[in-house]
Specification:
Blueprint: H1 6-51, H2 54-68, H3 72-82, H4 92-118, H5 121-129, H6 134-164, H7 176-187, H8 190-222
Length: 226
């Protein structure tokens, strides 16, 4: 059987926008919202570890250990299918945002922590010498430098998260991948349709990689790197 016959080309042409639109309307917002939550979690977790706040640091290390040691798919199932059994119900989309944010935040926290620790300790002392308190030093001196250092790693996390959101299809979120599954259920051309879905993911990731390169050059220029 020929793979690229007229029927398959017709299916691909007809399905392209039907897969792309959920990608723009669902996958992209899901990724952005999840990343925003993950970023907040990662910064808070990293600052707590950097400041060595003993009780909270132990809790953060426990959180990171649990999340990094269990599969994302299992976490999705626990939140979406497991929590209703104890009376906690969430719609699929906010559940996915919450789980992806919590999961990615655990990984990003380590990147931000490493970036914070890369800032010379002397800059903390210099901040105290000019009369700044700890909060001012963190917000004006340490975090801006750390974020520039962490940007490549956080950008990679964002791109990885975009691809990882395909797992949201398993809890009925009608994203890019779920749209491809639904169409395949009607026409049964999995090879062609899933390759098309992969192509759309590739387009999204290529655009993000291009933007990442532009922003990195800007950040390097601010830091004096040619």
């Amino acid at each position: 059987m020929e793979f690229f016959n007229s029927r398959i080309w017709g299916i691909l042409v007809d399905s392209f926008m039907k897969i792309l639109i959920p990608g723009i309307q669902v996958t992209v917002p899901l990724t952005v919202l999840s990343f925003a939550l993950a970023f907040v979690i990662s910064v808070v977790a990293a600052v707590i570890q950097y400041a060595d706040i003993k009780p909270l640091k132990s809790f953060i290390r426990f959180y990171i250990w649990i999340i990094r040691g269990t599969p994302l798919l299992v976490q999705l199932y626990i939140f979406f299918f497991g929590l209703p059994s104890i009376g906690i119900k969430m719609d699929a989309f906010p559940c996915a945002v919450l789980v992806f944010g919590i999961n990615e935040g655990a990984y990003m926290a380590e990147s931000v922590r490493a970036a914070l620790e890369s800032v010379p300790k002397g800059q903390l002392e210099a901040g105290y010498c000019v009369g700044m308190n700890y909060y001012q030093i963190m917000m004006r001196i340490v975090l801006p430098q750390a974020m520039r250092t962490a940007f490549p790693s956080l950008s990679n996390s964002f791109i990885s998260l975009l691809k990882g959101t395909s797992l949201a299809a398993t809890i009925t979120v009608t994203d890019l991948f779920r749209a491809a599954q639904i169409i395949n259920g009607r026409v049964y051309e999995p090879m062609a349709l899933y390759c098309e879905a992969a192509l759309i993911y590739l387009i999204f990731c290529t655009v993000l990689t291009w933007l990442q390169g532009i922003i990195e050059k800007k950040l390097n220029s601010y830091g004096g790197v040619k």
